[in-house]
Each structure stands twice: as structure tokens, then as C-alpha cells.
Amino acid sequence: MNGPHDMGGMHGFGPVVHEENEPVFHEDWERTVFGMSRAMRVRGIINIDESRHGIERMPPAEYLAASYYERWLSSLERVLVEKGIVSQQELDARQALLREQPDAPLPQRQEPEIIRLLTTPVRQQDQYQREGPSARFAAGDQIVTRHDQPTGHTRLPRYVRGKLGTIHAARGCYIFPDTHAHGLGEQPQQMYTVWFAAHELWGASAEGPQRVYIDLWESYLEPAP
To answer: Which DSSP string corresponds to 134-183?
Structure first.
């Protein structure tokens, strides 16, 4: 979907600030949010694409002002309410209690199986790669990306829509985020690494003969005319 998160090609946000020796978490609450998000995924309650779509639906001003883990927390609240796991009234009541009693004891619960799942290394590729249809394209093929305006989650960013690109490599079949985010199943598709010439994306403002590589699913692509 279009939104403030889709920043490719936009100006005015300033340079990316690199923090020397940046810690994994800046505050303890960030560690907690990370743990909650991972627990929801290993239990199969929220998948990664639902989580991303939850972030995308933040109000634009709220999104731009939020930190990384504030966005994660906003998505958790939104998606858990939508799925009926918690109610908005329960969230509001808990927040009100903690505002009045910030030292109120936190609930304690031991979940050995969740801890085991969270601490067991799993390759990212194994989590998302699936069997599926054979590849329609091969390395070197020229393609044109779709040029539509999806209302739901998509991994096709605005700045590459309707652009001419070249297949760099076929990566195999992976879960299709556009359906996975909306409870429509995994519907795996071939995924490709596609390169685009900088001038194709940015026009006269491109900085020399550079290339941009991006992973795209097959239904985003059509053969170049």
C-alpha cells in the first residue's frame, strides 16, 4: 500500500545518522517489544507480513515521529486487537493503570516451549521458502514492473512501479507477502533479484551509472515489450 513508510526516491528526510557502537536495544522496553513480537510469530498468531502491514497503517504523523520499536509496538497493538486476542478496552485500561501506578507489578508467566522456540536458530530461508510453480523468467531477461496502486500490503515499492529492469537471478519460490498479510494463505511465487539502472528510477537526478537491486515476486513482473 502507499504510505509514509514507502520512502524510496523521496527527498527532505536528511542523511541517515549512523550511531557508533550502537547497542542492540536503547531501552529495556525495546527488548520486551522484540520478545513479544517474536513470541507472536513462533506461536503462529501474527506472521511477519501482518506485522509489516500493521506498521504501514499507522497514521502518517505518528509513523514519522515514532522510533523503530515504537512502530513494532503500534503494529502489535493494532493486529492483536483485530484478531480478537486482546480488546482495545483491555489495552486502554492497562495503560491507564500504569500511568497512575507506574510501579504496578508486571504479570509473570513461564513458557518453556516458547523459550525453546525463541532460542532455536532457524535459517530465514527455511522459514519462508516453499515449493511452487517453475520460474517464468531467467537471468538476463528484461521485465517491466506493474504500475498499480494496491490498497493492501505489497513488497513492490512505488519508486520501481512501471519501470524497466533486468533479472539478475531467480531465487526460488517464497511466501507471497501480498496474500500472507491478509489471511489469504501463503500462495508461494517465484522471487527474483531484479536490477534497475539509476537513470530509469531517478531520471536526471541519478548519480552516475549506478544500479539498484531489489527482490520482487513474479506477479509484479511482465516481459518487457
So the answer is: PPS--TT-EEEE-----SS--S--GGGTT-EEEEEEEEEEE--HHHHTTT
Closest to 192 in 3D by CA, of 166, 155, 217, 175: 217
Taking the chain (225 residues) in runs of 10, the rounded mean pLDDT of each run is: 88 88 95 94 94 96 96 98 96 95 88 84 84 97 95 95 98 97 97 97 89 98 97
CB contact at 8 A, 221 and 146: yes
pLDDT digit string (tens) for 103-151? 999 888 888 888 888 888 877 778 899 999 999 999 999 999 999 999 9
195, containing H or E segment: strand 189-197
Q: Given the C-alpha cell 492483536, which residue does it identify?
A: 80
- Sole residue written with cell 515499492: 157
Strands 221-223 and 164-174, bridge-based pairing: unpaired
> What predicted TM-score, i.e. pTM, was given to this entire model?
0.91
CA–CA distance, 18 with 53 (Å, rounded to integer): 27
Query: Would you say how long the chain is, in residues?
Result: 225
Distance CA 1, CA 153 (A): 5
Cβ atoms < 10 Å from Cβ of 209: 8
Cell numbers linked to 120 = 532455536
φ, ψ for residue 128, nearest 5 deg: -120, -15
Q: Which residue has the cell 525453546?
A: 116
Which DSSP symbol is given to 85?
S
In the three-class reduction of DSSP (H, G, I as helix; E, B as strand; rest coil), residue 121 is classed as: coil
